Amino acid sequence: MLLLNPKKYQDRGYPDARSKEIMLKTIEFFENKGMQKMKDDTFSFEFTWDFAEFVKKERIFETLFLPKGYGDPDQYYSTYRMYEFSEITGFYGTAYWYMYHVATLGLDPVFLGDNEELKHRAVKTLRENPCCGFGLSEKEHGADIYSTEMKLYPQPDGTYLARGSKYYIGNGNTASLITVFAKIDGTDEYVFFVVDSNHEKYECVKNIIMAQNYVAEFKLHDYPITDADISARGPKAWDDMLNTINICKFNIGSGATGIVTHSFYESLNHAAHRNVYGKFVTEFPHVKRLFMDSYLRIVGMKLFGLRATDYMRAASAQDKRYLLYNPIMKMKVAIQGEEVHEMLWDIIAAKGFEKDNYFSQAVVELRGFPKLEGTRHVNMALIAKLLPNYFFNPAPYQEIPKMNGAQNDDFLFQQGRTRGYGKIQFHDFNIAYNSVDLPNIRVFKEQIKAYQDFIMISGMELGEQMKNDFDFLLAVGEIFTLVAYGQLIIESAKIEKLDDDQLDMLFNVFVRDFSRYALDIQGKSAATPAQQEACYKMIKAPVHDEEKFERVLKNNVYSLVDEYIMNP
Ligand SMILES: Cc1cc2nc3c(=O)[nH]c(=O)nc-3n(C[C@H](O)[C@H](O)[C@H](O)COP(=O)(O)OP(=O)(O)OC[C@H]3O[C@@H](n4cnc5c(N)ncnc54)[C@H](O)[C@@H]3O)c2cc1C
Fold first, then answer.
1. What is the bridge-based pairing of β-strands 177-184 and 151-154?
2. Residue 201's pLDDT band (cuts 50, 70, 90)
3. Model confidence at 453: pLDDT above 80
């Protein structure tokens, strides 16, 4: 079974017992805590101290976060394990997921940095307090990192004083290691250094949000810093900042997948047992379609995430394809989750408001996911640069196998300069699309061809249109994203042995999405008459097969009724 079911946690093909152990213990922690206590803590805004305590006792973040050469002798960093852990914590609640997510964000600049002693110090700190923090954002500047105002003021004795404030910093109430992004006073030189929230010169001003998490505003009042606290300076500090986000935004997609998977079980169980007008809710035709589409979209999220994991792990100086799949994981997967929630809520209606279930909090919390680590716009702006090479200039690559082994993901900690994005090449997407012959994939291929024609008709003007009109860029980029999304899903379906019925049904959904997105481009004010004409050719109907629909509904969707219920 592809979807996460913590009660039937199968062998995920881990290369060692420790990997499996941390996942099983985490599931056990949440199931022992139970739904009621989890909800009580959510509503009382109780910070996730119990989770922090558990993670510390079981040394879980050490196993997950540290690259080879730090921590235990057999330590390695694996995006595969990170994926699975992120999915599990998302499944049980965003508060736990967020504590984990910002802890890894906080630690990574140190391990990307140049200060070897600081790395060993960070291991010790992590063992004592697993909550780390990432101090990048500032109140007045948001996504505009160039305008960072936090500063290090050089002192006559060669040390520094840190002065300034940061805003929206997770774990900022308790972290013993917070990496802070700043500039050296009087220069434009960037710097990354670490501070401890327990230091007297650190003021935790307030929690900016009303939630279980602590998303802090903090101030540094002439906080003393020496070279021993600095992880990187200059362009390297800038690159470490962006490369940290590159590693960690992957968690957004896996966390979102966990969240909607739990919501899906709750909704299905409720609908299957609710009888109105003499019928179970699951028998209504529109509900069947909503459950079908919800299930398929989650399958897509999961398949994409697993395959994108392989490309993250296989990344190298010569293979930077992860820089396309990673923003898609962050943006597209999270937004797919929102679409699933919309459908599930349409089915369960009033039940979706009830305070005693997971759904009511999940539906609110998931909405934040596409907005973290760069908005949809910012990620799409990145992706759009890759469009010409993806469609018209492929390169040969060795096929990447499933990467769930014990190798360290070396390259993620040596990503180097964050330049030359537009030069990245990809393997030919036709390889995947031509490897299967299914009715809806055939239609989808015709749509891709029509999209390529749209790009050709647009010519050089397309680049200018997208540069001048972000709204247009978003619409055009949505289809590019869908093509790459579908490609990795086909690759993944083979590895995970998804049957043809489900794969074809999944592309039935994507054909409809494609048509919707084409209509969206067509309606944009920037679209020329020639482009509008080209858009109509992308609009196609999927191939419907009633027998196939009923088969998948019975064998794969409704067979999940009562398969997972969280302990009370
Ligand atoms: C719950 C929560 C937790 C967070 N945790 C952390 C944390 O632990 N550490 C941390 O450092 N930060 C954290 N953040 C901050 C988060 O990363 C910010 O949302 C981010 O810095 C963007 O800033 P902003 O939301 O103020 O958007 P703004 O910068 O105000 O952007 C507003 C709009 O402008 C658009 N825009 C911005 N730049 C561009 C561009 N170059 N091109 C086109 N459009 C653009 C955006 O898409 C957006 O629609 C957190 C935020 C929240 C809400």
1. parallel
2. very high
3. yes
Residue 10 clears pLDDT 80, i.e. is over it: no
pLDDT band at 218, cuts 50/70/90?
very high
The label of the residue with tokens 């055009």 reads: 476
Q: Three-state SS for 460?
A: coil
pLDDT at 65: 98
- The fold adopted by the segment(s) 133-238 is Butyryl-CoA Dehydrogenase, subunit A; domain 2 (2.40.110)
* 471 touches ligand 1 (CB under 6 Å): no
Nearest atom in ligand 1 to 371's CA: 19
Please, what is the Cα angle at 439 between 433 and 445, to 5 degrees? Answer: 35
99 lines ligand 1 (CB under 6 A): no
| Structure tokens given for 271 | 């609908």
Backbone angles phi, psi at 183, to 5 degrees: -120, 155
Cβ-Cβ contacts under 8 Å for 384 (sequence gap 6 or more): 466, 473, 476, 477, 480
The pTM for the full model equals 0.97
**CATH assignment of 6-130, among 2.30.30, 1.10.3470, 1.10.10, 1.10.540:** 1.10.540
CATH of domain 249-393+429-559: 1.20.140.10
With a 6 Å cutoff on the Cβ, whether 143 touches ligand 1 is: yes
> Per-residue pLDDT tens for 16-40?
999 999 999 999 999 999 999 999 9
Residue nearest ligand 1's atom 52 by CA: 168
How much is the average pLDDT of 389-393? 97
Matching CATH topology for 133-238 and 249-393+429-559? no
Parse the chain into domains and list their residue ranges: 6-130, 133-238, 249-393+429-559
